[in-house]
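Quick check before the chapter quiz. The format below is the same one you will see on the exam, so make sure you can read both the input and the output lines.
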Amino acid sequence: MTAFADLRLSEPVLEALREIGYEKPSPIQAQGMPPMLEGRDVIGQAQTGSGKTAAFGVPIVEYVDPTSSDTQALVLTPTRELCIQVTQAIRSFGVKKNVEVVATFGGAPIREQISRLRSGAHVVVGTVGRVLDLIDRGALQLGSCRFVVLDEADEMLDLGFLEDVEKILRRTPNGRQTALFSATMAPPIRKLADNYLYEPEHVKVKADTLTVDSVEQFRVEVASKDKPEKLAEVIAAERPRQAIVFCRTKIGTDRLYRLLKDRGQNARALHGDLSQGQRDGVMLAFKGGRVPILVATDVAARGLDISTVTHVVNYDVPRSPDTYVHRIGRTGRAGASGRAITFVESKQTREREAIEEHIGMEITPWSAGATAVRGSAPEAPAPAEGAVEEAPAPTDDAPADASEVRRQKPRRGRKPQINRDADEPGTRIVLAPGTSAGLEVRDLVAAITEATGLDGEAVRDVLVLERFALATVPAANVDEAVDAINERAGGERPLYAEVLVPR
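Here is the expected output.
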């Protein structure tokens, strides 16, 4: 198969795929989509980053009937981050057919999600616990559900969700079409497939097919004490557009993040000790391109799907070859190229050799001269009048914390940037319009930060509905934020705001 047109998809779906840059199917798409389009059950075994969302998302939107308000497809995900990413992807596939896709996950107001479901949801993407809750409340009706997808089933197993997954499957019609996607097939997952899938087509894509072709892999021999300096050298030489730096532990992640921040780098940390509000703020900033470097643990970064990540740095050698494959799969996505650089201490030769055996190739030594990076950012032009200025590197007379620099030096033509703690008291505001005007979460966050000078992390719990949107901003700044947004309402994409008064 050389093109999506070979699948005989309808023109609205093909047009949507062309607009988002999908040209040639990935291996999991080429093998998994035909049986799904034929109505067969599918087991897809592939790593994250293989394009499996399109493998099940495109067949779903192809057969969804937009004239019916019934829920016709359910996609279960293990985490809210993956839920949001899958929702955005399926929306982009079905935009020309007016397919309504609703995300349901914990940590967000359930009443708002119930309202969305009642307005009509052709496809529901949700975390296991929230979906089960909505079913028990009678808010999610699955009597007309034709498709059920279990995404990242191995992580559902790790999180102890399989029992609840079975409860949900028993609430769906017996005649449904079911797809299960997992990087591994542990016995409990195999048993689940045997019990709930009917003569499934087994599609398997090897890990090295996903990584070797799209990601250039390098190693850096370095002593433990020299790793911070070597990381600074690598970042300066590679100049990544966006990079994820992986550490083994939460403590190590926090320590490296603070070191980078003290050196003037625009970085954020992502690990399990952060509150959900803090994690959402970090992800919004990183996905929106406002943060170039994300320092993360493996658990926190699982399921990240951000096509603009050009580099992965394994600051700590991963514990297993499978983890290595998962890490470097964060770059080189959707047909793009990427670079992966692994720091190896002298005592870790055996781990490096195990990784090389697993991927079937030797990892090339890295040198500072190898800077012709296919995924790197171009030379930055001089800032235009009114553009945002970069915070200067810290000196002996200047604060080391980049956020302090931003507070002291207002940007030209803008209000000063104000960084906030994601856990401080917030007030809910309602904004208009919503998705009917083409607004997405990142558009809304950008509009609020542009108007108010708030940092992206201060804008939390964003929910964009058809005709309006909701967001939480710091309570201490809510009045001036609403005034600032309304002052700019006459622009090309008008946005109006008011404080949401609870009933």
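If your answer matched, good. Confidence is low (pLDDT under 50) at residues 208-212, 371-423.
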